[in-house]
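Hi P.,

Sorry for the delay on this. The queue was packed all week, but I finally got your sequence through. Input first:
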Amino acid sequence: MDAIATPAAVEDFLKRWKGNTGSEKSNFQSFIGDLCTLLELPQPDPGEGDNNKNAYIFERFIAPQRADSTTEKRFIDLYKRNHFVLEGKQTNKELASKTHQNAINAAVAQAERYVRGLPANEIEEGRPPFIIVVDVGNAIYTYSEFTRTGGNYVAFPDPRHHEIRLDDLHKPETQHRLRALWLDPLSLDPSKHAAKVTRQVSAKLAELGKSLEASGYGVERVASFLKRCLFTMFAEDVDLLPKESFYSLLVA
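Then the structure:
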């Protein structure tokens, strides 16, 4: 997987932003603009008077209902229809500290309220699959809800890897993940990846089965062998067997 941005371009971005201690209000939109330039992403559009046309803008207006049926005026920091609701912060707090984590959790909760406040015509295809929290100068956090039906957003791809620190922008896989969030977020749905892998494995096993039967092995014997292969691969995946032990046996 090739990188999108050169190491020099990433370093320039880090020199400009890493550890910046300014305010969210003055820095957030500039940070996003620079990130989009770095990763060759489209810049947010100018706002329109007709809110239905505001599919990818800063400060997207919404008017969610309160519990008493009145409405409140709110603005999403960055909105991309059918992609994400993004909240910007500049915590100026040490990563992994309790106060920093509390600030990120509060931003996620706020973004979830904004998702619930989107008008019905905005979510005909389902709610945005992602919430993103950007802590300017520190890190980017990603949360997903691929059913798009209003369930809880969870750390993506998992709680240990949902934090993207600015230094991680040197990694091609990080650059591609962020581009997918902007351009094709549903491509990150692990269930689709699992289904694709399952189809590929099934095709390979069917091919192997036909080859063994053509070599004179009985159908039941071939089926038993393939079942044992599947069980052994599963056992290796869940660490019941040493990593790559079955693979090493096959290629030996």
